[in-house]
Amino acid sequence: MKTKEQFLNILGQFLTEDRILAVEPFGNGHINDTLCVRTEGGEPAYVLQRINHHIFTNVDMLQSNIHAVTTHIRNKLVQRGEKDIDRKVLTFLPAKDGKYYYYDGESYWRVCLFIPQSRSHETITPELSYQAGKAFGDFQSMLADIPEGVLGETIPNFHNMEFRLQQFHDALRDNAAGRAAEVSRLTDEILKRSGDMCIQEKLYREGKLKKRINHCDTKVNNVLFDNDGNVLCVIDLDTVMPGFVLSDIGDFIRTGANTGAEDDENLDNISVDMETFKAYARGYMETASSFLTPLEISLLPYGGRLLTYMQTVRFLTDYLNGDTYYKIHHPKHNLQRTEAQFQLLRSLEEHAAEMDDFIKQWL
Ligand code: ADP
Ligand code: GN1
Ligand code: MG
Prior knowledge:
alpha+beta; Phosphorylase Kinase, domain 1; Aminoglycoside 3'-phosphotransferase, Chain: A, domain 2
């Protein structure tokens, strides 16, 4: 980590503020490093993030996407006559050279305003799930008319299942960490489902599914709430990009509607929480039904299986590659995550008919 003086130098590129008291770690993401900046005793004033440029290799595109997204949403909020807009959309600050990031010769940094009296939640309730569904549906709906070509893919093929399977095959072939034999049972389970899990790419090629702008990281902790439990805004905008629509219900089901943890070592803890799923679907359909096609709606439960399957494949690929992508906390962490995600997938498969039945009310 940097010294306070180094942080002051970085912050000085964005701020004229000279009362910075402390820069402290914040949040628990797997990819970027998030810090909060305090200028006095109370709440932090700014959020400082070190961008992981090994993963987001095109930082210029990344920050230009985020600027386009936040500007577009701000305009929508103004048109709607919303009050308190500065707490309903993130505000990133330009550096001295006008760019929305600063490169210190080693790392890329960005700064946004800390949204006062806001909080995120790490654990889910049906009410939070409903609110998050509304928030992510509204987010997609506000971005539905952003002109094509404005937003690039900050991670190319990020939620493209065919591409993720290709990476998995490459990792098996290269066997860089010598772990392929150890995971042969999981490999068989993955390959058995590969055809069924590439429906979106196939429908897209047939002209039956269009691409939309998705958030692509729809965890409940990426929604900020006020102290009364009302949604303020959606945050963590790195992966907002064009892709297939199931991402934003699928990843919430994967992360929110799991009775266990993403990396639970006790597989008995893991199953799909139907109340959370139903609450999210209700909230999401309130704000997203206006732009979704019947085909997309009918696929929403499949989205939960797809994103869980995709994450199983991604964690196992990283394990095979020798843990080069996700931060790990112990040597078998990616394998443990794979087992846990696969367990959730099996539970989602068992509940597929029940979930389809619930979605029928919107068809
Ligand atoms: P990551 O998940 O990659 O670590 P996030 O951008 O989601 O990064 O930030 C981590 C946490 O920090 C969020 O869950 C939220 O609690 C808090 N946070 C982030 N940005 C802000 C902000 N502008 N205002 C208030 N809190 C924030
Ligand atoms: C990463 O930043 P974080 O931890 O929310 C990853 C997601 C995965 C997730 C698994 C850019 O998200 O795609 O679903 O870990 N983000 C990127 O927990 O790869
Ligand atoms: Mg986050």
